[in-house]
Amino acid sequence: MDLPDAWAGRDAWTVLDTHFQDGQRFLNLCRTWQRDVRRPRLLHYVGIASVVPQVDVHDSAPDDERRSLARELADQLRDREAGFHRILLNHAQVSLTLCIGDAQVMLGEQAFQADTLLCAAPADKWAVQLLARRCKRGARFWMDTMPPRGTTAATDTQLPGLLQATGFELDSAVRPANALCGTFNPRWNIPTGRTPSHHVAHSPGRCAVIGAGIAGTSVAHALAMRGWQVTVFDQEARPAGGASGLPAGLAVPHVSADDNPRSRLSRNGTRLLLQHADRLLVRGQDWEPSGVLEKRADGNALWHPLACWIKPAELVQAWLASTGIAFVGNTQIAALQRTDELWTLHDLQGQDVGRYALVVLANAMGCAALLNGSGPGVQLKPDLQDKLKALQAVHGTLSHGTYAEALEGLPQTPVNGNGCFIPHVPSARGVQWFAGSTFEPDAMAASDLRTQHTANMERLSQLLPLQGFNLGETLDRGPVAQWSATRCVTHDRLPLVGPVETASGSGLWLCVGMGARGLSFSALCAELLVARLGAEPLPMEFSLSGGLDVNRLRRLRPFAADP
Ligand SMILES: Cc1cc2nc3c(=O)[nH]c(=O)nc-3n(C[C@H](O)[C@H](O)[C@H](O)COP(=O)(O)OP(=O)(O)OC[C@H]3O[C@@H](n4cnc5c(N)ncnc54)[C@H](O)[C@@H]3O)c2cc1C
Asked: What confidence tier does 60 reach under pLDDT thresholds 50, 70, 90?
């Protein structure tokens, strides 16, 4: 192939590999990228594999960097199952989207065009067409003509004709053994909107993110990684002044019988959060990949090995510390106005606080007032108005304290179910416990703190009936503190992520509605937002991403608590 020359000077490069196998091709390309001084800022690699790849970590190649990459990859592949997985390597500059499952199905779930296509020989013209849909004009391809074991492919004599009819030009000079290579260059116009995301890549510029919680700062970080200059505004003086100020919380997958979108989102989102935490935080102090024991309503227990407790404010700070991000506190954004292709932000006093090509609202419940207060320039479609009206401010209180006495029989790891208990979290004041959380659908009518705390202690006694003492009552005897905030919950308890269609133009995006699972959802939602914005590979199945879209159809479902 013509790499690394072809990617010189480009911001990002995207490879589609329909035959990921043991990942060796990926590792080789990563090393080429790492060594190249002209490399693009980001390397996106989408690998399709029928089963979870087995990476050889005892590679005999005399290259420490490659071995360490192989180890990192093998570690990330532990316990992966069918579906899409976003894996960030090399300080998050290499984004691997591993799609495990049937190749045709996985190709159908994509929404991007590759710069380089590496593939096995397709079986028929439909398979060739699927590949063509995933290529940019000018994309170089390399096709192994020996079909992988157990699969069929068009014959060596059929293939060139099939490829040419679909827009793939074959190299005439070079004809490697058992392979075909060339360029995707159809004689016809490639229709716009060929990608289901319908987005044309935005070039990095100046962006404002409203809201310095875990949703806003994860978006800010993902944008900054792509070269955007990001200013994060918050009405509070410090970051994480809203629900993300939670002193400690759990990131843990949600499990459902039908593996519903929330389950898939929380499972893959938790794994992505673990990667960020591992890279940016101090283990044992800011977070711990402790695993979580779930006590289910049916009396069974379920162990989640890939789960953690985390202090979200620490991650918010770490994301904000990325190059290209500035934080501006004490600034409530009250209105947005579109002038000269830019969004002007106004504060409560009506002052202009900056102009930006892109604005992302990640201000939880505050987004509805901001959009509605922005005048005729931000006229929203009735369906979005309706979804904003349906947002619920769900109040919650977490009880916490340090141990007044040594307690025997406490679990070593966090427990969740109807409520949660995090037993051992280090802090400057000593080892802390956390028990929570209340869930009061009407924030305005929330009961007083004492009542909420009592509810937490009762829930704890049921969650963890211990021999010899009542845990709720015992912990309640020590000095106890409470922390409260409001969750932003959507009508179907899935976040709202995507562009807001307004009367006056584009460049306004939403990332809100993290509900009771913001720690699991935020990082993956940020990847989704930037992927759609930049026409990059999606971090999740296209069909799943549709369920998070701001413009999804509103299914009317009654609100149910999600402790
Ligand atoms: C008691 C409790 C326990 C929880 N436990 C867990 C848990 O264990 N696991 C889990 O995953 N989740 C948990 N959650 C939920 C989690 O905290 C949230 O999902 C997450 O923090 C939401 O992040 P966010 O960034 O969307 O919102 P926030 O953190 O609320 O951030 C929104 C920010 O926007 C700012 N803002 C609003 N309007 C404006 C404006 N107009 N201009 C400027 N700034 C503005 C606010 O000041 C705020 O800082 C819990 C929540 C509560 C209340």
From this structure: low
Cα–ligand 1 centroid distance for 43 (angstroms): 31
Looking at the predicted structure, is the pLDDT value of residue 442 above 90?
A: no
For the beta sheet containing 480-489, the strands, ordered from the edge strand earlier in sequence to the opposite edge, are 301-304, 292-295, 415-417, 419-427, 430-436, 392-402, 480-489
Of ligand 1's atoms, which has the minimum distance to the CA of residue 520? 11
Using the 3D structure, point to which of 489, 523, 545 is the last residue of a domain.
Answer: 489
Query: 470 pLDDT exceeds 80?
Result: yes
Atom of ligand 1 nearest to the CA of 512: 26
Residue 156's pLDDT is: 66
Query: Of the candidates 344, 269, 351, which has an alpha carbon nearest to the alpha carbon of residue 518?
Result: 269
Q: Does residue 411 lie in a domain region? A: yes
332 lines ligand 1 (CB under 6 A): yes
Structural domain including 445 reads 392-489
| Beta bridge partner(s), residue 336 | 345
The alpha carbon of 102 and the centre of ligand 1 are apart by a number of angstroms equal to 38
The three-state secondary structure class of 526 is helix
10 and 110 together in one domain: yes
Q: How far is the CA of 284 from the centre of ligand 1 (A)?
A: 23
β-partners of residue 99 are 48, 84
* Tally of domains in the chain: 3
With pLDDT > 90 as the criterion, what percentage of the chain qualifies?
73
> pLDDT tens digits, residue range 192-237?
654 544 455 567 899 999 999 999 999 999 999 999 999 999 999 9
Question: Residue 14: beta bridge partners?
Answer: 44
Residue 372 has pLDDT above 70, yes or no: yes
Q: Are residues 15 and 162 in the same domain?
A: yes
Calculate mean pLDDT across residues 67-74.
91
Q: Is the CB of 518 under 6 A from ligand 1?
A: yes
Alpha-carbon distance of 316 to 140, in angstroms, equals: 40
CA 387–ligand 1 middle distance (angstroms): 19
519 C-beta closer than 6 A to ligand 1: yes
User: Are residue 398 and residue 363 in the same domain, yes or no?
Assistant: no
How far away, in angstroms, is 547 Cα from ligand 1 center? 21
Domain boundary among 184, 212, 238: 184
Q: Is the CB of 309 under 6 A from ligand 1?
A: no
